[in-house]
Amino acid sequence: MNSKKLAAEHAVQFIKSGMIVGLGTGSTAHFAIHAIGARVQAGLTIQAIATSEQSEALARELEIPIVSFQEVNEIDLTIDGADEVDSDLNVIKGGGGALLREKIVASASRELIIIVDESKVVSQLGAFPLPIEVVPFGIEMTMKKLAALLECPLTVRQSGNKPFVTDNEHYIVDCHTGSIADAGKLTRELNMIPGVVENGLFIGMAAKVIVGYMDGAVRELNHT
Ligand SMILES: O=C(CO)[C@H](O)[C@H](O)COP(=O)(O)O
Fold this sequence. Notes:
- The chain has 224 residues and is of the alpha/beta class.
- The chain has two domains: 3-121 and 203-222, Rossmann fold; 130-198, 2-Layer Sandwich (Alpha-Beta Plaits), CATH 3.30.70.
- Helix content is 29%, strand content 27%.
- It has six helices and 15 strands.
- A hairpin with a 5-residue loop joins strand 4 (84-85) and strand 5 (91-92).
- The longest helix has 15 residues, at 27-41.
- Its EC number is 5.3.1.6.
- Keywords: Isomerase.
- It is an enzyme of class 5 (isomerase).
């Protein structure tokens, strides 16, 4: 059994008719969107807001009703993947390049459920390169400021032989930070740099993490 699919299908059970649901991005979220589509076909009535053009296109294909932020005040529940999760349920996201919309949707949500396979659970965040979304204008200067703060190798994410461009027409800088001692402080410092739009640290945002295991087990991690 695919452990990402296991976590995704477990999470989708928390959706109830009438909810506004945030749809995540990535391969684990892809399984969740399919499971939501199946429940919609079976009579679940929800409306959804997607965190990327890709997830929105999939949702439309599966006939999941899509709404915009103009039409809702709040999102009831968002289900999204992650690149790393620690025991305090802090998370690194953005491996798929959708971190800005993911953070906007997560912060508009009453509840954020993160779905991962067991390989994503870590004791300290930072082995996965931290994605930072930056505006292309002045990126050389923004990267100098990032380098001064982080003191670690930085790379502009590529797609083919060009910079990867996000749904918001920005670039992603991947920062090989190594272990992050104080993720809360770092997220605030990063977002103070002009040119940085958002970073992939989601601190204190997840209410629950659902982990799928290779042996078929599923475990819920909650705040203690
Ligand atoms: O943050 C993300 C996209 O920006 C993804 O949720 C994250 O990269 C995990 O992806 P996957 O489920 O494919 O492992």
